[in-house]
């Protein structure tokens, strides 16, 4: 490209700022963004008010995990009470992610229902992640069905790990191998928690099909299994 044809980013932006169509599009994007922010804020307001009334000094649902982790039971009860009532998927996801930051046991049926009712891939993925991290109760049979169902989509990434934490190890290890093709890293991470020599050998045989960060994660899982069982496999 010659010097005469070269245009800097600053020059290009200056040109765009003079373009009426660009200005119109930019204003529309800003308006849409502001409307979305206001919509989310309005949907989250009753949840935030409930937390504030219970003594939690937060101005947003996301602040709960930052200020109060591990989140105590009174806050968990408030979040669970609002999860089925909130209609906005973004706010529901905020609630679900906050629930991941607790060590208190809680009934997981609200999470299962939210998963089944939502078409949001992001919310479903977050629900699986919270199931894996928070260890909610009463979900063993549900998670076995959900992780095996192709309709669960990309959420099976996190549901695979939840299977290792919520289901007896022997059952989890029989359930997860069919997912290796689609979700090798998630299955490896699950086996790192529940697997034994058989699963380590399976991962060892599988690692040749992967490369880069996926192979590193599989190797890490193999080492975790070997360490837990006290010998190389």
- Output the helix-strand order: HHHHHHHHHHHHH
Question: By helix and strand content, what is the structural category?
Answer: mainly alpha
Share in helix = 55-70%
User: What is the percentage of strand-forming residues?
Assistant: under 5%
Q: What's the assembly state of these chains?
A: single chain
Number of domains: 2
Q: What is the 3D shape?
A: globular
Rounded mean pLDDT is 90
Biggest sheet layout: none
Could you characterize what this model shows?
It is a single chain. The protein is mainly alpha-helical and 233 residues long. The chain folds into 2 domains: 65-167; 169-233, no CATH class. The chain is built from 13 helices and no strands. It has helices at 9-17, 20-53, 63-68, 73-82, 89-99, 109-117, 121-134, 140-148, 156-166, 169-175, 184-194, 197-206, 212-229. The longest helix is centred in the N-terminal third of the chain and has 34 residues, at 20-53. The chain starts with 8 loop residues before the first helix and ends with a helix.
What secondary-structure arrangement, pairings included, does this model have?
Layout: H1 9-17, H2 20-53, H3 63-68, H4 73-82, H5 89-99, H6 109-117, H7 121-134, H8 140-148, H9 156-166, H10 169-175, H11 184-194, H12 197-206, H13 212-229
Helix pairs in contact: 4-5, 5-7, 6-7, 7-9, 8-9, 9-11, 11-13, 12-13
Give a short overview.
This protein is mainly α.
What tags apply to this protein structure?
single chain, 233 residues, 2 domains, mainly alpha, 68% helix
């Amino acid at each position: 490209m010659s010097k005469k044809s070269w245009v800097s980013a600053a020059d290009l932006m200056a040109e765009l700022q003079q373009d009426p169509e660009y200005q119109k599009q930019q204003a529309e994007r800003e308006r849409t963004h502001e409307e979305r922010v206001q919509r989310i804020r309005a949907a989250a307001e009753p949840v935030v008010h409930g937390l504030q009334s219970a003594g939690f000094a937060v101005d947003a649902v996301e602040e709960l995990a930052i200020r109060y982790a591990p989140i105590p039971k009174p806050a968990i009860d408030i979040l669970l009470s609002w999860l089925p009532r909130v209609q906005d998927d973004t706010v529901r996801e905020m609630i679900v992610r906050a629930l991941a930051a607790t060590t208190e046991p809680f009934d997981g049926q609200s999470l299962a229902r939210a998963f089944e009712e939502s078409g949001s891939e992001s919310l479903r993925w977050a629900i699986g992640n919270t199931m894996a991290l928070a260890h909610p109760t009463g979900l063993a049979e549900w998670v076995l069905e959900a992780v095996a169902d192709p309709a669960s989509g990309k959420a099976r990434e996190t549901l695979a790990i939840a299977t290792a934490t919520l289901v007896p190890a022997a059952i989890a290890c029989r359930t997860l191998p069919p997912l290796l093709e689609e979700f090798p890293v998630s299955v490896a991470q699950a086996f790192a928690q529940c697997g034994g020599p058989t699963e380590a050998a399976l991962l060892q045989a599988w690692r040749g099909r992967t490369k880069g960060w996926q192979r590193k994660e599989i190797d890490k899982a193999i080492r975790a299994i070997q360490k837990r069982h006290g010998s190389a496999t």
